Structure formats: structure tokens, C-alpha cells
UniProtKB/TrEMBL annotation:
Protein name listed in UniProt: SPNS3 protein
UniProt keyword annotation of Phosphoprotein present: no
PANTHER family hit by this protein: PROTEIN SPINSTER HOMOLOG 3, SPINSTER
Segments passing through the bilayer: 42-62, 82-102, 109-128, 134-158, 170-189, 201-221, 271-292, 320-341, 353-373, 379-404, 416-439, 459-482
GN (gene name): Spns3
Length: 491
């Protein structure tokens, strides 16, 4: 979704919104300066993909060993959920700042500084003692800052190295490492905790991998990659002069203020409802990513499958399995969603929102069933969780496509920025903390027991199923307006 935000900031002709004379000039300008991507460019993409992989591995280390961290710092469910909330809030708020800096200053330096910063902070967090839990919270927020610097800038380097067809392919490859890295984060965290008997070691591997990424970045990524940007700048200047000569004041009238764009988007019901649907998706995925391994552990304790974890190192097999599920369902879901949408659009103009609505309703049902069978069958719980995540992943590419054709090209950057902000702020930034807080409130009314520890998490998790239903309803409402809004955008 956020990769599309980067692409949408390119001129409309670059995004293939119709062949124009300017497009022809641009192609000749680029082809004159460069015949095609060199082998070095593919090496640069490989380095950036590797860095993207370890960035998201580091992102999901905490959920992978959440039980150990909770035991070590003696945190309640609410305080534990705040860990991911702090991370995502810092990431969300810092991303626009680094996007601004990346447009104006050397991106290679910013990338290197970001990787070095989050690697150093992650390594330092592994030495924090149990008496300074607040420093651990602070460290996760600082890691979010470093992650934002990479996630907002790396795609623009890829976009500068490749022309339209290849660029889309390379960006798709880059972003497929998000679900892969997320799943490997669980696997790494659980594996290191199990092998070493000390969960702190999970925070010492990704910094080493980050050091390798930094070396490769320095050696292989060019100091400046402005080929495509230079062409755009030249064409933009010539286009402005031409418009001004043909029709005085035309360029000024074409521009609108940010507030006017926001007002216009608020009147675009397809954008509004699909953004709310995306927010519901983010809420559910954020809660699942944080709490599923801990929830499964409590279910196993109630069933007598595993003993209660009373020592520092706890069994992390659930994180290993959940990490594998995240990798598989993420890749399969994104590919399947794009392919199904491509086929159904040929026979139904409302296919995209209907696909999103159906998958959200199905995902909510699967998650609800997973919660209901957790006390009796762990295997069935894993199966339903896998299907729930699969149907959630179906929507990620489709919902972005909806935005791109219901919003005019000159407002797409603003629309995507607002959608990203809304989905993080009301979605995955708050859902881990909210689920933990509800669990705390339920436990506070009962005598402490392993049974109520499980039930409190089960009851609070039910909220995700209902939010998923609301998300499906929002996408269903989108289908009522999408044809009209698409025609308006085309006009």
C-alpha cells in the first residue's frame, strides 16, 4: 500500500494514465540518457530487498517472544500491547518527515543512517535490565523512527533506476519481502530464545545483519540516482512554460490547496468507505500480529498441553508456526487477490470492493471460529487463523487499486497519505494496546487463574472479529458508489 504512495507522487504520465505528447518526450529523454537497466541496478535492488527483509524481521521480533518479555519485565496485558503501539506511532509520525528529507537531500546517506540507527538501538535494547522497562519501551519507539527512514526512501531509489514496466516488477519484488520478513521475525525470535535459553539474543542477530546491509549499501548503491527525476524536472519546466504561453493563468487554476483536496476527498464516498475498510483490516492484522502466539500459549496451558511458564525462558513453538503461516498466507494472499480481481473486473465493474467485502466477512468468520475452538483443539485454531490471515492478505493490493481509479491523479498523493495516516492511527497503532487493556479489565474482576487469563484474552480478541465484519460492511458500501466515482475521476 505504501509503495503505491511513493509511485503516486510521480507525474500522471509516469503512472500510465494515458499516452500523451509529454510521455513521448519523457521516453525519448530517458532512452537517450540510458538504454536499459544495468546489472548494477539489479544488485542495488537485491541490497535494498535484503535490507527490507531484515527491517521487518526486526519489527516482529517482539511479538515472537512476547511471553518472555512480559515475564521478564512483569508487564500486564495492557502494558505489553503498548510496546507495539509505541513502535507504530513513532513509525507513522516519522514517515512524512523522512519522505520530505528524502526528496531534498542525499537518500543514500539517510538510508545508511536509518539502518545504523535502528540496528544500534535494537542491539542496545538487548542489554536493558528488568528494572528499566521504560527504556525498553523507548527503544522500540526509536527503532520505529529508524524503520520509517528506510521504508519511505528505499522504494524511490528503485523507482529511479527502472522505467515503467520494470519498475512495477522491481517494486513488487521489494514489497514481497514485507510478509516474508514479518514471518521470519517470529521464527528468528522464537528460534534464538529456544537455542540460547535467553530471549535477549533475539535482539542481537538483526543488528549484525543490519551491519552487513550497511556495508553492501555503501559499496553497491550509487551516491545519487536522479536520472528519472531529472527528466521529470525538465519536462515539468517546459510544460509549465507551454501552459502559461497558451493560456495565462491556466497553471494557477489547476492547482488547489491541500484543504481543498481534503474536502474533495471527503465527498468521494468510494474513497471514504474503502479507507475505513482498510483501517478495519489494519486493526485486525495489528492485533493478530501482536497477540496470537501468547493467546495460543494460554490455550495450551488450559488444555494441559504445555506447563505454565514460570521461568525466564518460555516455549516459543507457537511463534515459529505463526511465523510460517504469516509468510505463506501473505505471499499467497497478495498474489491470489490481484489475480482474482484481474479476472472478475472483466465481468463486473464492482468486482474490487465486492472481493474486499467477501474476504473481510470470511476472514472475520474464520477468526471467530479460531477463538471458539481454541480451548479444545489447537490444530483447528491454527487452521482457522491461517485462513483468516489468508483472506485478509487478499485485500492489500486490491484496496489500493480502488483508490487509484476513484481519485484523480493530481489528488492521489494526498489521498494515499490520508489513507495511510488513518489506517495506522485508528488501526494497528491502537489495536494491540486496546486488546491488552480489555484483557486487563476482565482479569481485574476475577481471581487470578490460568483459566481466566485465557478467557480474558479470548473475550477481548472477539473484538477483532466484529471489527472485521464492520470492515466488510465498509467495502460493501464502497460498491454502491464506485462506478460513479470512477467515472468522475476519469472526467
Amino acid at each position: 500500500h505504501e509503495s503505491t504512495f511513493i509511485q503516486s507522487q510521480l507525474p500522471p504520465e509516469e503512472l500510465n494514465y494515458g499516452a500523451t505528447a509529454t510521455r513521448g518526450k519523457q521516453d525519448s529523454f530517458v532512452s537517450a540518457s540510458r538504454k536499459g537497466p544495468a546489472k548494477r541496478d539489479y544488485l542495488v535492488v537485491a541490497v535494498l530487498c535484503y535490507a527490507n527483509l531484515i527491517t521487518f524481521m526486526d519489527w516482529f521480533i517482539v511479538p515472537g517472544i512476547l511471553l518472555d518479555i512480559q515475564q521478564y519485565f512483569e508487564l500486564s496485558d495492557g502494558a505489553t500491547g503498548l510496546l507495539q503501539t509505541v513502535f507504530i506511532l513513532c513509525y507513522m509520525l516519522a514517515a512524512p518527515l523522512f519522505g520530505y528529507l528524502g526528496d531534498r537531500y542525499n537518500r543514500k546517506i539517510i538510508l545508511g543512517a536509518g539502518i545504523f540507527f535502528w540496528s544500534a538501538v535494537t542491539l542496545g535494547s538487548s542489554f536493558i535490565t528488568e528494572w528499566y522497562y521504560w527504556m525498553f519501551f523507548l527503544s522500540r519507539g526509536l527503532v520505529g523512527l529508524g524503520t520509517a527512514s528506510y521504508s519511505t526512501i528505499a522504494p524511490t531509489i528503485i523507482a529511479d533506476l527502472f522505467q515503467e514496466g520494470k519498475r512495477t516488477t522491481m517494486l513488487s519484488v521489494f514489497y514481497i519481502f514485507i510478509p516474508v520478513g514479518s514471518g521470519l521475525g517470529y521464527v528468528l525470535a522464537a528460534g534464538m530464545a529456544e537455542v540460547t535459553g535467553d530471549w535477549h539474543w533475539a535482539f542481537r542477530i538483526t543488528p549484525c545483519m543490519g551491519g552487513l546491509a550497511l556495508v553492501l549499501l555503501i559499496l553497491l548503491v550509487p551516491h545519487r540516482t536522479q536520472r528519472r527525476t531529472a527528466a521529470h524536472r525538465a519536462l515539468s519546466i517546459s510544460g509549465t512554460i507551454r501552459v502559461a504561453a497558451e493560456k495565462p493563468g491556466a497553471e494557477r487554476s489547476a492547482k488547489t490547496t491541500w484543504c481543498q483536496d481534503v474536502i474533495s476527498l471527503a465527498q468521494n464516498w468510494s474513497f471514504v468507505w474503502s479507507s475505513l475498510g482498510l483501517t478495519a483490516m489494519a486493526f485486525v492484522t495489528g492485533a493478530l500480529g501482536m497477540w496470537v502466539p501468547l493467546f495460543l500459549y494460554r490455550a495450551q496451558v488450559v488444555q494441559g498441553i504445555v506447563p505454565p511458564c514460570l521461568q525466564e525462558s518460555c516455549n516459543s513453538s507457537n511463534s515459529l508456526i505463526f511465523g510460517g503461516i504469516t509468510i505463506g498466507t501473505g505471499i499467497l494472499g497478495v498474489i491470489a487477490g490481484a489475480e482474482v480481481a484481474r479476472r472478475l473486473r472483466k465481468i463486473n465493474n464492482k468486482a474490487d470492493p465486492l472481493i474486499c467485502a467477501t474476504s473481510m466477512f470470511t476472514s472475520a468468520l474464520c477468526l471467530y471460529l479460531a477463538l471458539m475452538v481454541a480451548q479444545t483443539s489447537i490444530l483447528s485454531t491454527f487452521v482457522f487463523i491461517a485462513f483468516g490471515e489468508l483472506f485478509l492478505s487478499v485485500n492489500w493490493a486490491v484496496v489500493t487499486d480502488i483508490l487509484l481509479y476513484v481519485v484523480t491523479p493530481r489528488r492521489q498523493s494526498t489521498a494515499l497519505a490520508l489513507q495511510i495516516l488513518l489506517s495506522h492511527l485508528l488501526g494497528d497503532a491502537g489495536s494491540p494496546y486496546l486488546i491488552g487493556t480489555i484483557s486487563n479489565a476482565i482479569q481485574a474482576t476475577k481471581a487470578p487463574s490460568f483459566q481466566w487469563s485465557f478467557w480474558s484474552m479470548q473475550y477481548s480478541f472477539t473484538l477483532c472479529a466484529f471489527i472485521g465484519v464492520f470492515g466488510g460492511a465498509f467495502f460493501l458500501l464502497t460498491s454502491f458508489y464506485i462506478e460513479e466515482d470512477r467515472q468522475e475521476a476519469e472526467r
